[in-house]
Design brief:
2 copies of one chain form a homodimer. By secondary structure, the first copy, chain A, is α+β, with helices and mostly antiparallel strands. Chain A folds into 2 domains: 80 residues, Orthogonal Bundle (Arc Repressor Mutant, subunit A); 43 residues. Chain A is built from 4 helices and 5 strands; from the N terminus they run H-H-H-H-E-E-E-E-E. The longest helix of chain A has 13 residues. Chains A and B meet through strand 1 and strand 5 of A and strand 1 and strand 5 of B. Strand 5 of chain A pairs antiparallel with strand 5 of chain B, so a sheet runs across the interface. Chain A binds a DNA duplex through helix 2 and helix 4.
DNA sequence: CTTTGTGCAAACGATTTGCAGGATG
DNA sequence: CATCCTGCAAATCGTTTGCACAAAG
């Protein structure tokens, strides 16, 4: 557990959220993994030893965490939402074979020049999505 | 209609596909719009005057067209697949307010340097997704 | 005629919702 | 103790599937 419980609690409270075991569990789980799990994976993880959260609650927790900006939704596959507690801007790599997803550090692609964009568009953010084969699949 | 019917028919045949009114309709519709419609939008468009295609047929047509490489799926929104007959590599702009999607020419972002990627990853393709506000929403 | 495509309705899987009871601050 | 959260089950929404009939080559 790289993130301390008190830290997590403090963060949740700072956003005005009540700290419930379920909400804490979802956020802590997300913070302590490097992948971008689906709801199913989070749920399985949380209830591995003993049942702690229901499906609907995980969905609700994720939505709340997203609303306050602690969690992001990542869309790289059809029909499946993945979640990420890494809020800092970063890029993604997706293995076209096994579907594995890996973060790419923001610094990997130094400043993309947005000046050639059509006039009239106001940029808020951008990210590069790279698709290819990971170590195991290539 | 910027694309001629014969051209479209020729393209479909060249891929070994039977040319049915429904399949023709789906592909022609996709070719002649600049946005990236959802199945719902395509269906509505095709059946506007008279019913010509059923939902299941549009799904089937899109899947077939995707298999032969004439159409791409674009994932920029949760739970919704959009389709694109523009096969050439290009980037996307998405309005965070109204959800409008616009192509960005490949040449807008001159060669991204992929050399800083982790060793072991084999790149197949990449694209930049820009999020922001379009003309109307800003 | 053989093969492939279409349409309908039922099936499916991920996500959402209504609501009653329970926990948090 | 007022408010917000949880859990269950039913509802919803996009997409897929099974199968009988129709059309394309």
């Amino acid at each position: 557990m790289q993130y301390k419980a008190n830290e997590i609690i403090k963060t949740l409270k700072s956003k005005g959220l009540r700290v419930t075991p379920q909400r804490f569990g979802v956020y802590a789980n997300l913070l302590n993994r490097k992948d971008h799990p689906t709801v199913e994976q989070i749920l399985k993880d949380l209830n591995q030893e003993a049942p702690t959260s229901s499906q609907a609650t995980v969905y609700a927790a994720l939505q709340t965490l997203r609303e306050v900006g602690l969690v992001r939704e990542v869309l790289l596959e059809e029909g499946i939402s993945r979640y990420d507690a890494n809020i800092a801007p970063h890029h993604h790599f997706r293995c076209s074979c096994c579907g594995a997803i890996e973060d790419i550090d923001w610094s990997a692609f130094p400043g993309i020049d947005l000046s050639k964009l059509r006039v009239g568009l106001k940029v808020e953010r951008y990210e590069v999505t790279v698709q290819g084969l990971c170590d195991r699949c290539s």
